[in-house]
Amino acid sequence: MAGWLITGGGGFLGRHVLDQVRSRDDVIVIGRRVPPGWPVDRFLKVDLGDPDIVREAVQNTRPQVALHLAGRTPPALPDELYRANVLGTLHLLDALRSLRSTIRLVLAGSAAELGPVDDSDLPVSETYVPKPVNAYGLSKHLASVAALATDLPIEVVLARVFNPIGPGLPDSQAFGRFAVELSKPRTLNRSEKQLPLTLRVGDLEVKRDFVDVRDVAKALIMLAEQGSPGIYHVGTGRSHFVREGLDLLIHDSRRQVHVEIDPRLYGLPGPRDSRADITRIQSEIGWSPSFEFEQSITDLWNEVSLRDLSIP
């Protein structure tokens, strides 16, 4: 019998959550493969796309708390997003409901569910009515709606996470890709002078509420322990231009860089500015972000540059 059941432990967010619960002996992780460094005896191989296997795993572990972190993000195709984010959540909900006992379910949502938000509504609160404009946002919103509509005894806490960054950020995300590009071996000309790196980028003038993934992991754990059913926004309450993060990465890399705007790299449709009202989670849970934007970017750079140095 598990105290906690966690899905998506091998993902960007999941790995940081596992780092913070590693000392607990009542945590079981389910997924397709064992997360790096996680004990094999506290892992069950489960495909969330198979409802029978999900139900069997839940019946065998009978958790009191479930953290649902599994899912897909862009650039996954729409059918992959809906299958992983919606169906995977529905299968988990059905399995938990079958236990007929009180369970706290913490669901990792996304600010992409909200869609464009007028400046007059910023920072955006939990009462804002979502209007997702792309497949990812819609898939996350459908999963959230299904979870929040679930009857007791499942207590659903939706952590609507804004834009997580920090060490381990995948290169499918802008800052992750920038860091990987900047860490590539330097090219020298015949006189052994370093040649500038041409870095092709998308829209640098959008603003996002970038929150450190380690702070998000802490928020999810605190919500599992102290949260009330409903929605909590998890962010910093401030937004930064994407350009600011790129400038910091270039500074940390100490490289000569020629930045080239490429419209083909523009991301999914979304707001020009996005930032969370975090009043609820601060007042009810006592959580506040502890990492500054600059520290998150620097820690991302250090992780990528050290990782690349370790590759033969």
Give a verbal description of the structure:
By secondary structure, the chain is α/β, with parallel strands linked by helices. The protein contains nine helices and 13 strands. It has helices spanning 12-21, 51-61, 78-97, 135-148, 174-182, 213-226, 242-253, 279-285, 293-309, and strands at 4-7, 27-31, 43-45, 65-68, 103-110, 154-161, 163-165, 197-201, 207-208, 210-212, 230-234, 240-241, 257-261. The strands form four sheets. The protein has a seven-stranded parallel beta sheet, with helices on both faces. The chain has a two-stranded parallel sheet with strand order 7-10. Helix 2 (51-61) runs parallel beside helix 3, helix 5 runs parallel beside helix 7 (242-253) and helix 7 (242-253) packs across helix 9 (293-309). The mean pLDDT is 93.
Structural class: alpha/beta
Main sheet: which strands, in order across? 3-2-1-4-5-6-11
CATH topology of the domain at 4-168 and 210-238 and 270-290: Rossmann fold
Q: What is the helix tally? A: 9
Radius of gyration based on Cα positions: 20 Å
At CATH level 2, the architecture of the domain at 4-168 and 210-238 and 270-290 is 3-Layer(aba) Sandwich
- Mean pLDDT equals 93
Helix content: 25-40%
Strand content: 15-25%
The SSE string, one letter per element, is EHEEHEHEHEEHEEEHEEHEHH
